[in-house]
């Protein structure tokens, strides 16, 4: 019995001697205390004793404190390839893949819904016939129509190919398959890059042609207060272009210039901006492009379905005199005074709608 | 209608013009971003020799014009 007690006591002591240092050692490894009682881990997190080998290793957070990018060294001439991590690229990707499709869909579908609601509420704005009905007045000459249509054709193709950048892989590719989508997307990209040039030329032509008639004035303010004719009775006065049309003109001029500049920045990469700059350009280009498309949808609506007689201005170039008198009375007076002999006014009957 | 057709033709023509203008100065990526090749020996020679045995002799190249580069020899780099 005594031998057994002695054996058990010895065994317990041995276990304690082995277990206690083992239990304490992880804590010492985590936070070793020196012989003088000082903690070797300094306040800045650096550990000169090397007790935590990874504490001194280079990590992403440490590198970003030194510079905004993480870069290495390369021997090839293109030094940009040395960039390993560019943090803004993550923000750009987040915008491009998450926010942009929603912004685009809500803006464009919202505009289509608004136009549909307006059409259901107001219907087509019909021509008001008068004694002058049937007579024609030249509203846009051949070069003005040529410029308008060149810009418009390019804009439609640029819009569709631009929307393909955002929605193609989400909407089109599941329908037609990756091979067909790849071919379409490639041709869309070509058309986007090459038709941008006649579009920019068209915007420049339109700006020169029509800026004289698009300077805002007091008549425009009265037109806006009258809601373009929806508020109160009768049509508000308007010269060659009313305030709404002037808004479209300045939108096309401003957005067209912005799209051209940002597009050129991307068409000639690294010519004037670095990768951050090009990402910013792409964000501006896409957001303005979406708003541009929504604005032009409204322009197309009011120029075709929304108003009887409006399309003739860009179709044949000649509009019904009664329509012109109703919507652009100041311009008609000006034209009639300018061409008092009447070469503008011809008695052709109005074509059947 | 004439103005519309003329506009479409002009847009296509200008687009084709832009295509030629843009592609005339284009380089492939391997051309634009490649290094100048490392020259490890004089023009017209290689490291393994015409017999591909890794033991070229200077006089071996006389009868092997294949791949002989023209132009002046580069100056060996001293280091």
Automatic annotation (TrEMBL), chain B:
Chain spans, region Disordered: 40-79
Signal peptide limits: 1-29
Biased composition (Basic and acidic residues): 54-79
Taxonomy, superkingdom: Bacteria
Keywords: Signal
Protein name as annotated: Uncharacterized protein
Organism: Methylorubrum extorquens DSM 13060
């Amino acid at each position: 019995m005594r031998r057994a007690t002695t054996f058990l006591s010895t065994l317990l002591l041995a276990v304690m001697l082995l277990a206690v240092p083992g239990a304490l050692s992880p804590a010492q490894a985590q936070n070793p205390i020196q012989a003088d009682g000082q903690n070797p881990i300094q306040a800045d997190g650096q550990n000169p004793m090397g007790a935590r080998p990874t504490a001194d290793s280079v990590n992403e957070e440490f590198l970003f404190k030194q510079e905004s990018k993480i870069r290495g060294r390369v021997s090839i001439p293109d030094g940009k390839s040395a960039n390993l991590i560019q943090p803004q690229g993550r923000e750009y990707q987040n915008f491009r893949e998450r926010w942009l499709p929603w912004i685009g869909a809500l803006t464009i579908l919202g505009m289509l819904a608004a136009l549909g609601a307006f059409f259901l509420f107001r219907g087509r704005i019909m021509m008001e016939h008068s004694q002058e009905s049937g007579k024609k007045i030249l509203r846009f000459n051949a070069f003005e129509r040529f410029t308008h249509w060149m810009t418009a054709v390019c804009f439609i193709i640029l819009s569709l190919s631009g929307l393909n950048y955002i929605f193609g892989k989400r909407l089109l590719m599941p329908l037609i398959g990756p091979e067909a989508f790849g071919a379409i997307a490639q041709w869309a990209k070509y058309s986007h890059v090459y038709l941008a040039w006649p579009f920019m030329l068209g915007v420049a032509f339109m700006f020169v042609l029509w800026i004289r008639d698009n300077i805002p004035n007091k008549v425009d303010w009265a037109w806006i207060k009258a809601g373009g004719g929806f508020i109160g009775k009768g049509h508000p006065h308007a010269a060659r272009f009313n305030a709404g049309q002037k808004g479209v003109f300045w939108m096309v001029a401003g957005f067209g210039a912005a799209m051209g500049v940002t597009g050129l920045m991307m068409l000639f990469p690294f010519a004037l901006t670095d990768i951050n700059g090009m990402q910013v350009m792409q964000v501006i280009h896409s957001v303005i492009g979406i708003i541009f498309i929504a604005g032009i949808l409204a322009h197309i609506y009011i120029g075709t379905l929304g108003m009887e007689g409006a399309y003739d201005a860009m179709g044949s170039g000649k509009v019904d005199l009664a329509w012109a008198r109703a919507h652009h009375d100041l311009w008609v007076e000006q034209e009639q005074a300018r061409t008092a002999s009447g070469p503008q006014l011809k008695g052709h009957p109005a074509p059947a709608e | 209608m004439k103005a519309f057709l003329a506009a479409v033709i002009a847009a296509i023509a200008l687009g084709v013009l832009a295509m030629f203008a843009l592609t005339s100065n284009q380089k492939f990526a391997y051309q634009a971003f490649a290094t100048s090749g490392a020259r490890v020996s004089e023009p017209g020679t290689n490291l393994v020799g015409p017999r591909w045995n890794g033991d070229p002799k200077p006089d071996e190249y006389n009868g092997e014009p294949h791949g002989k580069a023209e132009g002046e020899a580069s100056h060996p780099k001293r280091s």
